[in-house]
Design brief:
Length: 415
Amino acid sequence: MTQGNEPIIVFDHVVKEFTVRGAKKTMRAVDDVSLSIDEGDIFGIIGYSGAGKSTLVRMINALEQPTSGTVTVMGNDVSHMGEGRLRPVRQKIGMIFQQFNLFSQKTVAQNIAYPLRLDHWRKDYQDRRVKELLEFVGLAEHADKYPSQLSGGQKQRVGIARALATNPKILLADEATSALDPETTTEVLQLLERVNRQLGITIVLITHQMNVVQQIANRVAVMSSGKVVEQGSVYDVFAAPKQPVTKRFIATAMDGLPDPARIAVMREQWPGRLVTVVIRQRDIVDANGDVLVPASGQDISDLIAAHGIHSGLLYGGIDTVQDIAIGAVTYEFTGDPAKIDAFLDDLARGSDIVDFGTKDAPIDYDTAVARAHIADAPAPHGAQGTPTLADDLEMVEDVDDVVEMNPDTARKERD
């Protein structure tokens, strides 16, 4: 990733409110957001439906104007610019979409050339640029095909090529992989990573998929109800989530953490003490180098040997985030309960563990996971309080929902 030292996009206390036509109420989609995206970043903005992430990103190219606060893009305050001055800024911002947005009656080459025609490029320059881009995205042999003749992954490659046509400095990817299967998603993400690495283009990923952020982003902001509730390097946020919504995201993406159904099956097959150990390759430190969250699972083999514990590795997975290992492995420990307790006490001093108990003395799944601070224990479906992951995934992000405010509250916050 080709990171620069200067921010290319800055949100400064940005608020976006909508007035509902015919109703005396104000709806808030973005609520006092401040964050910066450095030049060369692959920056993920993640949130469930209604989080406000798409509204936030539409303010980068001034398709939405903030109610208050400022949005600065490439040194320009786009929140207070007229259409005439915005045009050259927008030319440096490309965008790709979930549903590709290709012209069905135009060939692949014609789709890619479209922004060049709008920008009045000479025909020979257009042809040369389209050829370059077709080769870059691996579609040189498909130039004369129509979108209906392409796979989903090929369509998204056309979308990426079109977004790159005018040599942008920023690429906005709005749920760009949500319509793709996992293998094709990986291929498209690898292409985006190459766009960032070889062309030096800053990429902003808008997604509800934590594994998308995990694969290629270097920094991430987590949104909930219009607010940025957590932000930082992807590894730091992934390895030590602080907010409930972030913990739910991490729980869906972390390799090796067994779900309740798997734990129930394990209890029938292996009646001993079931314990999941979080694997975290390195410490998480603050700006001064002080350890905020220590590494985990680095001495488990030594401790098993030292305590003479009988163990069996049952389940697990290790992945990498920014080339740093993270994951979880689940063991069955058998033998003298007192020795196992002493071993787990020792292990817990240097590792995060999830103790699910034994078949005869089980520990409730949600309670065990909550104690380990890996993910919040979800409330039952339909219950009051924090929405469950299932509740969140039932929502479809066509248009961002917004936070409803009564007129008095909205007026006080604006004042």
